[in-house]
Amino acid sequence: MKLFICAVGRGKPSPEKELTSTYLDRVRAAGGTCGITGAELLEVEERKRLAPAELKTREGQLLLEAVPKGAKIIALDERGKTQTSKAFSQLIARTRDDGVPAMAFLIGGADGHSREVRQAVDVTLSFGAATWPHMMVRAMLAEQLYRSITIMTGHPYHREG
Q: Residue 154, exposed/middle/buried by CB under 10 A (0-12, 13-18, 19+)?
């Protein structure tokens, strides 16, 4: 199964972008041991100036178009369900075990996800009630994907206690 982070906006060189890349590299390197065949960041952006409501709708369309066929869709949203790292890992493992070819994790624009995205997702998750910068969410998600692999493989990176 392949993992995709589908995010609104183009990342500029920054520590957050570098951190996201580092963790996605780790996912690609370690994932094969547990059936994760790859990890990619797919960035989408609407360049036209649109009214906020139109922009939110358009960004939602672009995100949904970026989702690979047959993927389980997970939206990241502050109103979503919070999970422990272990539960997140179990979600990924169950999806893999169900034979789903891909998981797509959607990170919306500044105004959040459109109604169309909210209707299309399988699960909505949150990294807590705080509002996080989108580039930080990418890095946090990439780290959690890597942590999930270490949990699945019994690697000591993740500790509970």
A: exposed
Whether the full predicted model's pTM is greater than 0.85, yes or no, is yes
How far is residue 78's CA from residue 55's CA, in Å, rounded to a whole number?
A: 19
pLDDT tens-digit map of 90-100: 999 999 999 99
Q: Choose the CATH number for 2-153 among 3.40.1280.10, 3.40.50.1000, 3.40.50.620, 3.30.70.360.
A: 3.40.1280.10
